[in-house]
Amino acid sequence: MEQLKRGDESSFKTIVAQWKNMVYNTVLGIVQNETEAEDLTQDVFIKVFENISSFKGESKFSTWLYRIATTTALDHLRSRKRKKRFGFVQSIFGHDQEKKEQLPDFHHPGVKLDNKERATVLFKAISSLPENQKAAYTLHKLEGLSYREISEVLHTTVPAVESLMSRANANLRKKLEDYYTKHYR
Amino acid sequence: MTTGKNITQEVEKTLDSLDGIQRAEANPFLFTRIKAKMQRQQDNVWEKVFSFITRPAIAFAVVLLVMGINMLAVWGSGANENLATDTGSANVSEIANEYNLIASAENYDYENFNNE
Questions:
Q1: What mean pLDDT value characterizes chain A?
Q2: What is the ipTM of this complex?
Q3: A112 interface with B at CB cutoff 8 Å
Q4: Residues A71 and A136 both lie in one domain
Q5: CATH number of the domain where residue A130 is located
Q6: How far apart are CA A43 and CA A27, in angstroms?
Q7: Same-domain pairing of A13 and A85
Q8: Is residue B54 less than 8 Å (CB to CB) from chain A?
Q9: Distance from the B64 Cα atom to the nearest Cα atom in chain A, whole angstroms
């Protein structure tokens, strides 16, 4: 860590090698796009390199890294939403140069073969969750973090995380019920 | 026709579909790409500066600052203008008196003008 703070390249390389899958998986779960996730993973590690001096060791390094990954991914989603809104406003004024892009279905490469179709439906439902619920659900389901660990990442309390997960599950259930009611009638 | 019970079962199965999920793996050449990106960012310092100052919060703060400085300048110059006018007009009067430049009816001896 001290070598990394001094800007040592080989230490940085080691950090990247050790944590890249964790960061990529977290970001991928939130943004649900492999190209964007790869780009954002690079951004996360650049932020780590540039801000390592601010890591005081009060929390675990993994907690700090999860925090950067989560906020980077959520910031990107906000940016994506802003661009979409701007494009909509442009289309009102007749500057509709690009067709409205609908995000393709997301297939997570780590899902078991039997569950691929169902997982795609679930990820679509996850993408419509509010930010905090999305972050908590992704960290729990995709990274296997406990509620305590999630509370440290999100700078909140364990009861708050329990509440987020409860609401996330309720919202997902409602969306999936609507989906299956519509598709199986 | 799918009953309510079946829909509930479908929902539960879908909610469990992420069980046993494996981590997605990052690009094996990630470090090389990170280095290249850092190099590009270093080369584009102005891009960074521009992207920082065009952030809405920063741009708004700058506008407020400029307006504040403007207002201070206007208020300040308003106070100074009065002072300058008083001082200036005093100076002009002094000079005019010295050179008898001030036109005044008292200075003109109309009856004896042509005789001087």
A1: 89
A2: 0.84
A3: yes
A4: no
A5: 1.10.10.10
A6: 11
A7: yes
A8: no
A9: 24
